[in-house]
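My main concern about presentation is that the manuscript never shows what a single data entry looks like. For the editor and my fellow referees, an illustration may be useful. For illustration, here is how one protein appears when written out as sequence plus structure tokens:

***
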Amino acid sequence: MCISVPVELGRSVLILNIATVSNSGLDEQILCNLYNEGGLQESLDILPLLVEESYLRAYPEERKARAFLEFCRAGDVQAVFDLLDDDGEEGENDDSQILVPMEIADVLQYQDPLGSLYSGLHTALISEKVEVIWLLLLIASDLELHRFPPPMLQAAEQLGADRLFGVHSELLDIRTLKDADGQTAAMLASPSLSRIFDISVLSVTA
């Protein structure tokens, strides 16, 4: 099936030529050609975006935790720290509903129900975002300080990052979290990552 849908977004009008594709029982896609001020994007799968938005409308209280996962995936250390350092005041979602702020421990331990129950550590590791991996280990594990690279500790000090493991009684060592297949982040470490990162620190016995 193929349809054309004009969508107004701010000052721009996006023309989506949408085709729904099913590959013999495999994951479905909603492919579109997206025209906007930046030009043409062909065969863009917007289904994940639609699923994400639908989920957040049903569970708006998880918006902060899902943003945390996105920052981990992108390797944005400053954004991860700023989000965790947020004062947690109540806010409103697009439907003007009061949102109860998530505790920092809940954000750090959040596991993606739409993405194999990956934690922030799983996500950063798969994306090979080394700086974020170190930051998460510093904040949410009991890894000994002498295992951290001195430049990383200096950068964390400049950020004002504190160790929270042991301070928040409900906070588990982030290295112990398992995904939907029962795998910790250490089990997902790729050979390519081992060339730029000491993967032994991902083990709770390190």
Notes: The CA atoms of residues 77 and 131 lie 7 Å apart. The longest strand covers residues 12-21. The longest helix spans residues 47-58. Strands lie at 2-9, 12-21, 29-36, 39-45, 91-92, 98-99.
